[in-house]
Specification:
- The chain is α/β, with parallel strands linked by helices.
- It folds into 2 domains: 86 residues, Rossmann fold (3-Layer(aba) Sandwich), CATH 3.40.50; 134 residues, Rossmann fold (3-Layer(aba) Sandwich).
- The protein is 40% helix and 16% strand.
- The protein is built from 10 helices and 11 strands.
- The strands form 3 sheets. Strands 1-11-8-7-5-6 form a 6-stranded parallel sheet. It has a 3-stranded parallel sheet with strand order 3-2-4, sandwiched between helices. A two-stranded antiparallel ribbon has the order 9-10.
- The chain binds guanine (GUN).
- The site of guanine (GUN) has 8 residues, from strand 4 and helix 6.
- Guanine (GUN) binds next to strand 4 and helix 6.
Length: 293
């Protein structure tokens, strides 16, 4: 029986820990503030953006949501970012991906003031992450590392295998896992769609991080006994027995992986709740820097 790595409980604990840090920032006359920019009406993005605003509100932080139409000009979006970059009420800026009005999203992320880049998608912060001198880390990858740390998983010298090479999860989480930090210091392998015989790699993993975006992709016979499984996937699959008509599953087939793993994140309730918590963490960190804490 695997230990269940409970992201919901961990996220709640962390949010309690934030209270005193937020009070300390407020005592210096500033309220930590996050601005979220949503372009278009993607239903999943709308849910995520609402959750981000709600998380700020619950923590007593300032939040602003700026909604732009899907067909807005790139200049309109850049003007919004420029305004937020110099707005003293705002410590963190996040432009929700996908961004339908631009061809090149990285141009948008690079426009954000690196000190306010709480997503860590800006090339400057990605570079700092890679060379190991950053302080803002991308939220979902940082959430994975935080879970490994808080569950006291011994990662040093272990073989971490990352499935997926996206800019949002695969690449940054692999970089964090190889850094000489608590929750990292691993020998790290990244596998992706062009990898031949993915199972031959996943079977070697002491720590398996899966961000493939494919429901139930990793089966129990693809992992080794005692592996720690961090499942980043959140996929909707049709389920006529549910009122909504769907249920959420991860990228790992839970029933078979749970039998072999020593610890595993469930979906939902694993990595998911950590993402917004790490966003709050980054916004608080940025506010602390502003007021000199
Ligand atoms: N869309 C899906 N995940 C993310 C994220 O972590 N940040 C942003 N900005 N957009 C996303």
């Amino acid at each position: 029986m695997a230990i269940i790595i409970d992201g919901k409980k961990t996220a709640e604990e962390m949010r309690k820990e934030f209270a005193s840090r937020i009070s300390a920032v407020k005592a210096k006359g500033h309220v930590p503030g996050l601005a979220v920019v949503l372009v278009g009406e993607d239903p999943a993005s709308e849910v995520y953006v609402r959750m981000k605003g709600k998380a700020c509100e619950e923590l007593g932080m300032h939040s602003e949501t700026i909604k732009l139409p899907a067909d807005c000009s790139e200049k309109t979006l850049m003007d919004v970012i420029d305004r937020l970059n110099t707005d003293d009420k705002i410590d963190g800026i996040l432009v929700q991906h996908p961004i339908p009005c631009v061809k090149d999203e990285s141009g948008v992320f690079n426009r954000i003031n690196p000190a306010k880049d709480v997503d860590c998608f800006n090339a400057i912060n990605v570079g700092r992450l890679v060379i190991g001198d950053g302080y803002l880390f991308p939220c979902t990858p940082a959430g994975c590392i935080e879970l490994l740390k808080r569950y006291k998983i011994d990662t040093k010298g272990k073989h971490a295998v990352v499935v997926g090479r996206s800019n949002i999860v695969g690449k940054p989480v692999a970089n964090l896992l190889m850094q000489k930090i608590e929750g990292g210091n691993c020998t790290t392998t990244v596998v992706h769609t062009a990898t031949k015989d993915i199972a031959s790699f996943t079977k070697q993993a002491d720590i398996l991080v899966v961000a493939a975006g494919r429901p139930d992709y990793i089966k129990g016979d693809m992992i080794k006994d005692g592996a720690v499984v961090i499942d980043v996937g959140i996929n909707r699959v049709a389920d006529a027995s549910k009122k909504s008509g769907f249920r959420l599953v991860g990228d790992c087939e839970y029933a078979t992986c749970e039998k072999k793993a020593s610890a595993i994140t469930p979906v939902p309730g694993g990595v998911g709740p950590m993402t917004i918590t790490m966003l709050m963490h980054n916004t608080i960190l940025s506010a602390e820097k502003r007021v000199g804490i």
